[in-house]
Amino acid sequence: MQDDIVTRIVRDLHEYQNSSEFGRRTAGPKMPARRFKWRPGMQLQAGMPVRLNSDGSVDSSSLAVQYFMESTSFIRSSILSQKFYEVSIPDFMSVDKGTGGWQNEIITNATGIIGGTFAAGTGPADNAGPTNIPRVDVALYPFRAAIKTWKGGYGYAIDEVNQALAANNFDLITARMKALRKLSSLGLQDVAFLGLETDLTDYPGLYSSADVTVNTSLITAPLSSLSADPAAFQAFVAGLLAAYSANANYTATPDTFLIPYDDFMGLGAATSSSFPIGTMIKYMLTVFKELTGNEGFRILPSRYGMAERNAGFWNADGTNRYVLYNSARLGVGSGDGLTVKMDVPIDFTLNPAMSADGFNWNGVAFLRFGGGRIYRVPEVLYLDYPAA
C-alpha cells in the first residue's frame, strides 16, 4: 500500500512537471546531458571508484550522482540497488497494526486464578453455610506497551531534480521517498528483534527482554562445531527441550528455535564427523518435531543472534544468543498472538511534499510503534555464550 502511495505522489508530481505552469517557472537553458550535480559536499573526483569500508560496507563519501563519462558511454536502463538484511517480522511474532492510534500506551489485561486446592472443596457439607464453601477468585493485571512516534523527512529542489534527470533512468524524488520508506522498515525490524537501543525498558525486542531466563550452560560453543564432538551434540539435543519445559513450568512447548546466522550456516555438517550420516539440522528438526508433537516446528537463522550485531544492547561486546520460544502467532495452529507481539498503531504514512517558495520542496513521513514485547515470559528461553 505504501508503495502505491509513493507511486501516486510521484505520478502527480510528474504530471505537474509536464504542465505548462511548471515549464514557465523553470524555463532556462538546458543542462548538459553529460554532467549533473548532487547536493554540495558529495561530488567525486573524476574517475574515482566506489570505496568500501573495512567491514565491507560502502563508504558513503564515495557516492554521488555527478560523475564523468565519455561521449561513447551508454547508461544501462536498470539500476543496481543496495541490499540489506531483511526479514518478515510476522514470521517471528504477531504484529498488531492499526490499534491504539495516537495513544501513548496499549494495555493488555492478564488474568490469574486465585483459590484453594480442588481437594479443599471435597470436605463435609453438613451445616456448611455459603461462607464456608471454598471460593475461587480471579486477579487482573495490566501489561503496558509504550508507543512512540517516528518521523523522517525528504526534500528536493527544482534544479537538482532536473539535473538528475540527465541520467535518463534515475528519478531523484522517487529514490528519496523509497529511501525514507526503507529506513523506516529497517528501523522497525531492528526494534522488533533488538529493541530501541536508547530505551530497552519501554521498547524491548524479542532478543532483549530483561525478564527472560538466560541459560549459559547448554551452549558453550557454536552448535556447528559439535560435529566433531557427537557426545556433546547429543547432550545438547537431550537437554534443550528439558530446560525449556522446566522454564515454562511444563505448560507449553516451543515451536521456533532461532540460531545465530553464522552458526546456522554450518549445520549442514554431519551429526558425527566419524559417521557422516544425516545433517545436524535435520537431526534436530526430527527430534524436536517428535517431542513437541508439532510438525510445524521451525529452526531459523537470525543475524540478530550474532554477537557483532547485538553488541551494545544487553552486553557491551554482545553475546551469541539462541532463542527457543513458542511464537503463538495468530492464524498458526492455536496461536493467540500473545506470547510475543509488536504494536504498530499507525503504519508508515507518507505526506506529499509542500513548498513555501515554489522552488524547494519538503515532505514528511511518520509512523507509531511499540517494541517486540514478550507477554508470556516463561515461554521464551535465551541461551547465550560469550562473544569470541
Summarize the structure in words.
The protein is an alpha+beta fold. It has one domain: phage-related protein like fold (Alpha-Beta Complex), CATH 3.90.1690. 23% of the residues lie in helices and 23% in strands. It has 8 helices and 14 strands. It has helices spanning 2-17, 20-25, 158-164, 172-194, 230-247, 261-264, 280-292, 307-310, and strands at residues 94-97, 105-115, 136-146, 148-157, 213-215, 256-260, 298-302, 319-325, 340-344, 346-350, 354-355, 360-369, 372-374, 380-386. Strands 5-14-8-6-7 form a 5-stranded mixed beta sheet. Strand 11 (354-355) and strand 12 form a beta hairpin. Helix 1 packs antiparallel against helix 4 (172-194). The longest helix is centred in the middle third of the chain and has 23 residues, at 172-194. The two termini are 43 Å apart. Mean pLDDT is 84; it is low at 24-48.
